[in-house]
Design a protein that fits this description.
Radius of gyration: 20 Å
Strand content: 25-35%
Structural class: alpha/beta
Order of helices and strands: EHEHEHEHEHEHEHHEEEEEEEHHE
Number of domains: 2
Number of helices: 10
Strand order of the largest sheet: 14-13-12-11-7-10-9-8-15
CATH superfamily of the largest domain: Dihydrodipicolinate Reductase, domain 2
Shape: globular
Distance between the termini: 40 Å
CATH architecture of the largest domain: 2-Layer Sandwich
CATH topology of the largest domain: Dihydrodipicolinate Reductase, domain 2
Number of strands: 15
Largest sheet: 9 strands, mixed
CATH class of the largest domain: Alpha Beta
Length: about 350
């Protein structure tokens, strides 16, 4: 593809479509040639704002446009048909997280990818932040040893999204777990370099969002419009004996209003993300330190798309392999199944 433009069809002109468009503009050899959204007025306005030549309201018609990449930014439950059509028409596919809320759909996407011989990448932007990249290097160098336990929590105080379809199971497939929990779960499993979960025990109830008069920082909440969880917790066991605990919530009564942390505990030391605090021991002396040189001023959304474009141009593997995403989705699906059954489930 040397010397040619990477032509992109953007499907979904909402908030994430805007974020992805800003990121594509940082790739010199890429151009969004068409935008599609089922809201025609929004699609036309988006195209005018970003100087995009073609506008569609039907993704199948949009995918008749000559292009190299389909960028999927529609609600979660609508990812699968767009991804499959993208591969059917011979395009590489970048898809917002979660790739799907169902493992079987991810497997369908992988099979379609293999038939098309194209790249599939989940837009898990947290992997590409400065702290994430430097911490991954530190762990890969053997400084933490074998990671046998991890804690990840992505928590908000009274911050349920009141725009879009976040609270609708029909469109989102789940609540806080698949919206924000997937970010921390993916990051943690990637930092652990462990994608072999074997069982999950979890709960995913709606504890606060449906309570009459509940305060929400982002506007009033109509309990009748919510049919997803506002709180999800899961405990995962891995094939090698390691374990991981995950907490995700939109509405928890906590201070401050947002906490996003991952802690990893290994045989040689412990590390924290994003603070980059390190706890180790030498000669029976406990040592505390902080990694002080992560890449600065890194926009993770920009970097993820730059890496995807680079992988296409240079024939490299997907920066976020779907095989890894499948295991992340198995864990999230396991939390929901465990909640429904009231017991641990095998993966």
């Amino acid at each position: 593809m040397a010397g040619s433009k990477l032509r992109v069809i953007l499907v979904g002109a909402g908030g994430m479509g805007q974020t992805h468009t800003d990121a594509w503009k940082t790739v010199d050899h890429a151009e969004i040639v068409a935008v599609c959204d089922n809201n025609g007025a929004r699609a036309r306005e988006f195209a005018q704002t970003h100087n995009i030549g073609q506008v569609f309201t039907d993704f199948r018609k949009a995918l008749r446009t000559p292009a190299d990449v389909v960028d999927v930014c529609v609600p979660n439950s609508h990812h699968t048909p767009v991804v499959l059509e993208g591969f059917k028409t011979g395009r590489h596919v970048l898809c917002e997280k979660p790739l799907s809320v169902l493992p079987r759909d991810v497997e369908k996407m992988m099979a379609a990818r293999d038939r098309a011989k194209k790249l599939l990448m989940t837009a898990q932007h947290m992997r590409f932040s400065g702290p994430s990249q430097i911490l991954k290097r530190y762990i890969e160098a053997g400084n933490v040893g074998d990671v046998y336990y991890a804690r990840a929590w992505h928590l908000r105080r009274r911050s349920l999204p009141t725009w879009g379809v976040f609270a609708s199971r029909k469109h989102s497939g789940g609540g806080a777990g698949v919206d924000i929990g997937v970010h921390s779960l993916d990051l943690t499993m990637w930092l652990m370099d462990n994608f072999e979960p074997v069982s999950v025990s979890g709960i995913a109830p709606c504890m606060l969002a449906k309570r009459k008069g509940t305060y929400n920082r982002w506007g009033s909440v109509d309990p009748r419009q919510i049919d997803v969880e506002d709180f999800a917790v899961g405990f995962t066991r891995f094939k090698n004996g390691a374990t991981l605990s995950l907490e995700a919530s939109w509405m928890l009564n906590i201070q401050p209003v947002s906490i996003v942390n991952t802690w990893l505990f290994g045989t040689k030391g412990g590390v924290e993300h994003p603070s980059l605090n390190v706890s180790t021991e030498r000669d029976q002396i406990q040592l505390d330190s902080t990694i002080s040189n992560p890449p600065q001023n890194v926009n993770a959304y920009h970097v993820e798309i730059q890496r995807f474009a680079e992988a296409i141009a240079k024939g490299k593997p997907s920066p976020v392999p779907a095989e890894q995403t499948l295991q992340v989705i198995k864990v999230l699906d396991g939390i929901y199944r465990s909640h429904k059954l009231g017991k641990e489930v095998k993966l």
